[in-house]
Amino acid sequence: MPKILIVGAGQSGLQLALSLLEHDGYEVTVMSARTPDEIRAGRVMSTQCMFHAALQHERDHGLNFWEAETVKVEGLGVSIAAPDSSRALDWVGRLDDYAQSVDQRVKMAGWLEKFEERGGKLIIHGVTTSDLNSLAGMYDLVVVAAGKGELVQLFDRIPELSPYTQPQRALSLAYVHGMKPRPEHPDFSAVRFNIIPGVGELFIIPAYTLSGNCEILFFEGIPGGPLDVFTDNPDPQEHLDRILSLMKQYLPWEYDRAGEVELTDSRATLAGGYTPVVRNAVGELPSGHAVLGMADVVVANDPITGQGSNNASKCAASYLDSILAHGDQPFDRQWMKGAFDKYWEYAQHVTIWTNAMLQPPPPHVLEIIGTAGAKPEVARRFANGFQDPSDFQHWLLDPEKAAAYLASV
Ligand SMILES: Cc1cc2nc3c(=O)[nH]c(=O)nc-3n(C[C@H](O)[C@H](O)[C@H](O)COP(=O)(O)OP(=O)(O)OC[C@H]3O[C@@H](n4cnc5c(N)ncnc54)[C@H](O)[C@@H]3O)c2cc1C
Questions:
Q1: What is the dihedral of CA 228, 217, 147, 100, to 10 degrees?
Q2: 31 Cβ inside 6 Å of ligand 1
Q3: Closest ligand 1 atom to Cα of 173
Q4: What is the pLDDT of residues 145-172, one digit of tens each?
Q5: Where is the Styrene monooxygenase StyA putative substrate binding domain (predicted)?
Q6: Most exposed: 182, 278, 328, 371, by fewest CB within 10 Å?
Q7: From the CA of 310, how far away is ligand 1's center (Å)?
Q8: Are 375 and 381 within 8 A, CB to CB?
Q9: Residue 347: CB within 6 Å of ligand 1?
Q10: C-beta of 145 in contact with ligand 1 (< 6 A)
């Protein structure tokens, strides 16, 4: 019976662990730095909006416990602020299938409890490299799914796939109750992508948290610019007040909805930033054992395109297929590389698109965004690209293909 150790109880680690338990013949251990109660009582970790294909992986394994009560995200809107803070552009594209965002505090705590209930072995322990060094020999396969934590150092950065050496955005967010309904389309919910040229972006994301449905106000600020003002770690209310005051200044139409908001809880704010990176998926331990990196450990993109949890879900589904297809054969380095390469066939498209979105938009992208305001099919294709970003290579990312597409609509 293959013994599998998964380090890290996040989207990818727990999805893989729970889906492996459905199959006879695997002994699955998860090591988590925190207990379910500690996760629930902790700080928010993400905005985690997940689109249809990723949600479907959860449904396939009966893990969509919060689907009925979570607000359905049925569109993706884009606005651009003019220099005088008026709204230069505003449209919404409908998603073919809805997206949802379940606070990772709710989801990971619930999944961790379910993992134990279903017979998985849970060890609460923050794992060090030296722990892994001695543990690895006791398992047939060790998967490191520890997000952006220190264990990433086991995996070498691949420079040719990692164009950035610094964070490209300063991130700050707050989960709030009390936003007024969106006047543009009060009948359905949508993620809103507000662009402030040269300054950054504000995403507003409907979500489900510990206290029910809410909205997340999420600024992505260009480093050193006017939105990069959270490094002093303000207290939660001050954090929210700063977000609101920036909304008032740059995006008054969104501020108008936010007059009565309050934080969902005292741990509902977050600030930070990280460098996008692609790493070698096979990590080498001093003892000579190899470990397989998963999701953010090996492919970490900036959240500007909201793809990390989606990628984590898709990576877990892809690794599950690779594990099952391998049967009783040894999980050696060659198998690990093959498992990653299969996932990368998809993930490369997310990385290329996300890295491009961190740059000022080139003229052909501006033309597409402008045309989407007049042609709903263009808006719809852009919105649905968030559920399968591999489509963008065929039109958005190449000036000639973009021109040909626009001429055809
Ligand atoms: C501000 C922000 C907004 C985001 N918005 C979105 C979005 O809208 N949509 C989207 O799809 N993605 C979004 N993401 C990205 C998404 O949250 C991550 O990409 C995703 O959670 C990665 O999943 P993972 O399984 O790789 O790691 P994680 O979900 O981060 O899980 C890693 C787990 O490992 C644990 N761990 C770490 N080190 C150790 C250790 N040494 N020992 C034991 N356990 C350890 C951690 O505590 C954590 O529980 C956002 C991220 C941020 C920061």
A1: -160
A2: yes
A3: 1
A4: 999 999 999 999 999 999 999 999 999 9
A5: 147-257
A6: 328
A7: 11
A8: no
A9: no
A10: yes
